[in-house]
Amino acid sequence: MVKTHPDSRFSLYSLEQIRDSAAIILQIEQTESTFTDSKRPVYLCEVVPAACYNRNSIAERLTDEIIKINTENRRLRGKIERLEKALT
Fold this sequence. Notes:
The chain is α+β, with helices and mostly antiparallel strands. The protein has two helices and three strands, in the order βαββα. The protein has helices spanning 15-20, 55-87, and strands at 9-13, 24-34, 41-48. A three-stranded antiparallel beta sheet has the order 1-3-2. A hairpin with a 6-residue loop joins strand 2 and strand 3 (41-48). The radius of gyration is 19 Å and the shape is flat. It starts with 8 loop residues before the first strand and ends with a helix. The relative contact order is 0.19.
């Protein structure tokens, strides 16, 4: 999971906590764990306070992150191709 907002934090929530949260939940990922006391499934969530959430800037940051990752992927694919040619 990649952090997508500068004011966000990662927290472990149950489904009930996700449903009742006053904060904005940007991402949710199910884990293979359960809470010890309640035995409920654990979800890793990226959470940002509602006051800090700005939808426009989030979209811009996500677009920048996608462009950065795509550029890195292209660079790595080129490196793999060059290494494969060197091996043959």
